[in-house]
Design goal:
Elements (H helix, E strand, L loop, with lengths): L1 H38 L8 E2 L17 E9 L5 E5 L6 E7 L4 E6 L7 E6 L14 E4 L4 E9 L6 H9 L2 E4 L3
Parallel strand pairs: 6-7
Antiparallel strand pairs: 1-2, 2-8, 3-6, 3-9, 4-5, 4-8
């Protein structure tokens, strides 16, 4: 009887350990896969505009067909990255995600006038000197992560305005 209890306790402890490890590792693993796909050949710190989502072609998890997505894989190991997101009507938002998929920053077009301007710094939080006025600073909890821009697509007629806004949206290393 004692042996059965010990075997059961060991099996339960093993199952618990595997469960905790899987829950802890899954977000980083899935985010790593997504960042690798989005970065592609161009690499990190480059804004990429996704084609409209379909059932066959999706670059983000559970995309909405009413949104136009742009994404940038962030690599802060060499220094801060500057994001400039030109707004389009009726709605534009920028979300920043850590390597474990935690969302740590959001700004939308209703928060302030002009484009969304953010300098993302690494976990050290060292803000570069001489930031232009109106540029916000976001401190990333990890050196790698992702920026996702979402724009509402009302109808086909709104697509030229969205494409024009995308052409003037950037993700580049911050040079001061």
């Amino acid at each position: 009887m004692k042996r059965v209890l010990l075997t059961g306790a060991a099996a339960l402890a093993t199952a618990l350990a595997v469960h905790v490890a899987a829950v802890a590792a899954a977000p980083r693993l899935l985010m790593g896969i997504a960042m690798s796909r989005i970065a592609g050949e161009e690499g990190a710190n480059v804004m990429k505009d996704a084609a409209p989502p379909t059932a066959e072609a999706r670059t983000v998890v559970r995309p909405s067909p009413d949104l136009a997505y742009s994404a940038c894989v962030l690599d802060l190991s060499e220094g801060p990255v500057r994001l400039t997101v030109r707004k389009s009507t009726p709605y534009t938002s920028l979300s920043l995600f850590a390597a474990n998929s935690d969302n740590y920053f959001v700004e939308d077009d209703r928060m302030r006038e002009g484009p969304i301007e953010v300098v993302v710094v690494g976990p050290s939080g060292r803000v570069p000197p001489g930031l232009p006025e109106g540029v916000r600073v976001a401190t990333a909890p990890t050196e790698r992560g992702m920026a996702i821009v979402r724009r509402v697509v009302e109808d086909e007629a709104s697509l030229p305005g969205i494409e024009a806004a995308r052409e003037h949206s950037f993700c580049v290393p911050y040079t001061g």
